[in-house]
Design a protein that fits this description.
Layout (H helix, E strand, L loop, with lengths): L2 H20 L8 H5 L11 E13 L5 E11 L7 E8 L25 E7 L5 E13 L11 E3 L4 E6 L2 E8 L2 E8 L4 E8 L2 E8 L5 E13 L5 H4 L1 H7 L7
Parallel strand pairs: 4-11, 5-12
Antiparallel strand pairs: 1-2, 1-12, 2-3, 3-6, 7-8, 8-9, 9-10, 10-11
């Protein structure tokens, strides 16, 4: 054996002896550190399709409805991911809408919260408000067919909106994400839904009565169920096998 190999072996033996004398001292990992690791690993190439669907609607006591829906689907062949927006409008046939007289204070910290934040605050009567988040994970041997784009493409810095007797809705691409905001007519309240910077916010303020508000965000993930190819799974062993050429 060459002298360099003996030298390397001596260094390894000395290192091992030093660790044995010092003893093995395990390092405890805190819960907050583990929380950053859970669910963060997916085999390369396993995700073959990812999509987001968002919608926000507000129906007042007169039956008028205002809202919007947006969607985005991303696959390996997607060149430029884009959100497409559709506004939702319906004319009611109810009686004249009474002006809301309620007051909701505070809540400024909701806009700076992290993770998933859902809030409903009401100062009126007979209201219904729903904040829904759904994550659908499925497996397939190929990515599902792309759904034909419907609505108007949302460009960074742009706002798409509409209005009717129920109020006004504005969908904007801002802060690295998408925001849907509804301002209800007659001081009935506001609704906000936002996906940005790894967080999700759903916030509803009800100042009037007999309103029905819905905020919904759905994440759709499709995983490849064919498994990794033999070459991909063997990549680490192949790299180690190359060490044989230098005597290891």
């Amino acid at each position: 054996m060459k002298t360099s190999y003996w030298l390397a072996a001596a260094c390894l033996a000395a290192s091992a002896s030093g660790y044995a004398n010092a003893g093995f001292k395990p390092i405890e990992i805190q819960d907050n550190e583990l929380s950053e690791l859970r669910g963060r690993y997916v085999m390369p190439g396993r995700i073959i399709s990812f999509g987001i669907v968002m919608s926000s609607t507000w129906r007042n006591a007169s039956g008028d409805l205002i809202g919007a829906a947006t969607s985005m689907q991303l696959q390996a062949a997607t060149v430029k991911p884009e959100f497409y927006v559709q506004t939702i409008k319906e004319h009611g046939n109810g009686n004249a809408l009474a002006t809301g007289t309620g007051t909701v204070t505070g809540g400024a910290g909701l806009n700076s919260s992290q993770g998933v934040t859902q809030s409903v605050r009401a100062a009126g009567d007979s209201n219904s408000a729903y904040n829904n988040v759904a994550i659908n994970v499925s497996e397939a041997n190929q990515a599902p067919a792309l759904v034909p784009a419907q609505g108007q493409a949302l460009i960074a810095g742009q706002t798409i909106g509409g209005s009717n007797a129920a109020g006004s809705v504005a969908v904007s691409a801002t802060g690295g994400g998408v925001q849907m905001a509804i301002q209800a007519s007659g001081n009935q309240g506001t609704a906000l839904q936002q996906v940005a910077q790894g967080g999700l916010l759903q916030n509803t303020r009800l100042l009037g009565s007999a309103n029905v508000v819905n905020n919904m965000t759905q994440l759709n993930v499709v995983l490849n169920n064919n498994g990794m190819s033999a070459g991909a799974l063997d990549c680490n062993l192949t790299q180690l096998r190359a060490l044989r050429n230098i005597g290891y």
